Amino acid sequence: MKAWFCKILFFFLIINFSLYAIDLSEHEWIREQIAEDFAPFVKGIQENDLDETMEMSKIFSTKDHYLLRVKVINSIPYIFNKNGKLIDVPIITYHLHKIMENQALPDIDFIYFYGGGPEIAGYPPTNFAKNGTGWADKHLWDYGQLPLAPILSGNKTDELINLVLFHDRMTSGGNNHYTWSKVAKEVEETLLKSPWNHKSPMLSWIGQTSDFKLNDWANINSWTDYSKRGKLLSISKNYPDLMNIGITSYGEVQRRNISIRNFYTSPYRSINDQMLYKYQIVLDGFTCTNPGYAWRLLSNCVCLKLDSPKRQWFYKGLQPGVHYLPIKEDFSNLVETLHYLRDHDDYAYQISMQGREWAKKNLVNEELLHYYCSQVLLKYASLQTFQPKLTSEERQELFSCSEYAKLKNLLPFNPHGFFSNDNANALSFLIKKYQCNIVVELGSWMGSSTRHIAKCLPENGLVYAIDHWKGNEEHFYPDRTDVHNFLPTLYEQFLSNCIHARLTHKIIPERMTTLYAAKCLTVKADLIFVDASHDEESVYNDLVAWYPHLKKSGILCGDDWYWNKTANKSYPIQNAVKRFAKERQLYFETYGTTFWMLKDTEAKILSF
C-alpha cells in the first residue's frame, strides 16, 4: 500500500467520545452558522446527488479547482479525485486527524471543494456570474441544472446555497509551506519589534489584482471599476499621508494590455513591514483572503474589513465595532474612519487589542476550528439518507495502491503458524461479544491468526497487522530448523496467504516494529492482540505502549500464556501481564494459552 496511505490509515482509528474543551456559551454563533449552511438540506442528503455532482466536476480542466470525494469509513478517510483515483491531500487528512483525536465520527461521505474562489462550485449562480462578469471561465451551472448536493468549502458567498463552510486549504497542516501556524508565529515575533506607539498612523495594504476577471475585456472604461484593490489604490493617491497602498502584480490587467497609466508596481512588503502601520484593511480576492484576515486580527493593528459577500467559518464570531471596523463596499467611509482613528488613538488601540485577543483565543491553536469542523461533519452525518460505503471500483482502486498489488510473485498458500484452537475460540468469543470492528494485531507471521480475526469481523471490519516480518530472536536459534527456510520470504508469504484467502479488503499490513508503530502512529482499536516478541520485557513494553491505543472498554489480549518456562519456574509472558495488570489495577483472565483484560476496569468478561 502506498506509504502515505498506510500512514494515514493509522491516524484515524479513534476514540468514541468527545474531548473538546469548548465553552459553547461563548460560541452560539457556531450553531447559527452551521444551521444556516445546512438549511437547504433539512430534507436529507442523497447519495445520488453526490454522484451526479462528481460527474459534473469532470468539466474542470485546471488542477487547482476541483471537487474531491471524501469517505470516512470506520474512522479511516479515503480521498478520491474526480476520476475516482485514490489521492493524497495532506490538508484534508491533517484536519480529519485533528478532529478525530477528540471526536468520533460516524461513517460519512461528502464532497470537498479544494480550489480557489467558491463561485466555481456554487449553485445557483450569482448575478455577476450570470451576466458574464464573474471570475470563473466555467461554472457547474453552465452545463444544466445540478442536483443540490452540499459541498464543503473553505469559503462561500451568501448566494451560493449549496456550500457549507469548512476548513480552508491555507490553514495549517499537510505540506503547505504557507500555513496559518507559521504566519501566526511570524506575527507574534514581529509584535516585539512593533509596539503600538512605534507604528505609523496610516493604512497599509499590499497585494495583487487577483480579485476580478471579466469575460468581456474589450469594452471596459476602467479596470479599477471592477477591482476593489485597484479602486483603493486610486483613492490612496489622493491621501499619500494617510494610506500606503501597493500593487505587486497587475496580472490579467497587464496580460490583456489594459492601460495602467499613473499606476506603478510596488515591491513586496512582508508582514513584518505591514505591521509597522496602525491600520490594516481586509480586501478579498477571488476568494476570502486567508490567512490575511486572521493575521491582521492577531496583529496589534486596527483591522478594517471591506463589506463583502464572501466569508469563512469564523466570521459570525466577530463583532463590528468591537473586533474590527466595517468599511462600505464603495469605500465611502474609509477616509472618515481613518481620520477618526487618528484623532482617537485610545479608541483605535482598544479595537486593535480586542481583535487581537479574539484571534489569540479562537484562531491561533486551531482547537476551535477543529471543533467547528467536527460539528459540521456530525450535522452532515445526521442528514445522510444512506449508509456510506466504498464502491467496488473504489475497492479495486484501494487494492491497486496496496502492498498486495506490489507483490511480484504470488506464492502458494502456506498454512504454517502457531495459532491454536484455544486462541481461535477465545478471539471468536471476544470479537463477537464486544462487537469489535477494528483490531490491531502485534506479530502476524504468515497470517493464520490475522485471517481468523478478519473472518470474525463484520464485512466492513479491519485488522491491522503490525510486524517487521524478519522473524523473532528465537526463530534464529540453531534448533529452529522448522522455520529457517520461511524467513527470507516471510512477508511475501503473508501477503500471498491473504490474497488466497480473499481477505485483502479486511487486512492492512504495516511493516514496522511494534514499539515504533505505537510511538509514531495514532491507533484506537476495539481489540489489540499481542503476539510479537515473547521475552518478558518486550511483552511488557508492548502492553504499556499499546494500552493507550485501545478505545474505552477495549480489550487487550495475547497468546502464549505458558510459553518457555524459565529455570526459576516462571513464565515470561505471565510475568509481564501480571506486572502490567497490577500497576493499573486491572483484572485479567485466561483461557488455554490466551489472556485478556478490559481497559480501565476490574470487571471480568465472562468465563467460557
- Topology-level CATH name of the largest domain: Rossmann fold
Q: How many β strands by DSSP? A: 19
Q: How many whole angstroms does the radius of gyration measure?
A: 29 Å
Strand order of the largest sheet: 15-14-13-16-17-19-18
Helix count?
22
Note down, in words, how this protein is organized.
- It is built from 22 helices and 19 strands.
- With 608 residues, the protein is of the alpha/beta class.
- It has 3 domains: 191 residues, no CATH class; 186 residues, Rossmann fold; 197 residues, Vaccinia Virus protein VP39 (Rossmann fold), CATH 3.40.50.
- The chain has a 7-stranded mixed beta sheet, sandwiched between helices.
- It is elongated.
- The N terminus is likely disordered.
List descriptors.
608 residues, 3 domains, alpha/beta, Rossmann fold, disordered N terminus, elongated, 19 strands, seven-stranded mixed beta sheet, 22 helices, five-stranded mixed beta sheet
Q: How do you describe this structure in short?
A:
The protein has 608 residues and is an alpha/beta fold.
Describe the secondary structure blueprint for this structure.
Elements: H1 3-11, H2 28-38, H3 47-56, E1 66-73, E2 76-80, H4 90-100, E3 108-114, H5 127-130, E4 151-153, E5 156-157, E6 163-165, H6 180-191, E7 200-208, H7 228-236, E8 243-249, H8 251-255, H9 271-274, E9 277-282, H10 292-298, E10 302-306, E11 310-311, E12 325-327, H11 334-343, H12 345-362, H13 367-383, H14 392-400, H15 403-406, H16 421-433, E13 438-442, H17 448-456, E14 462-467, H18 481-484, H19 490-500, E15 507-511, H20 514-520, E16 525-530, H21 536-546, E17 550-558, H22 572-584, E18 588-591, E19 594-598
Parallel strand pairs: 3-4, 4-6, 7-8, 7-9, 9-10, 10-12, 13-14, 13-16, 14-15, 16-17
Antiparallel strand pairs: 1-2, 1-3, 5-11, 17-19, 18-19
Helix pairs in contact: 2-13, 4-13, 10-12, 16-17, 20-21, 21-22
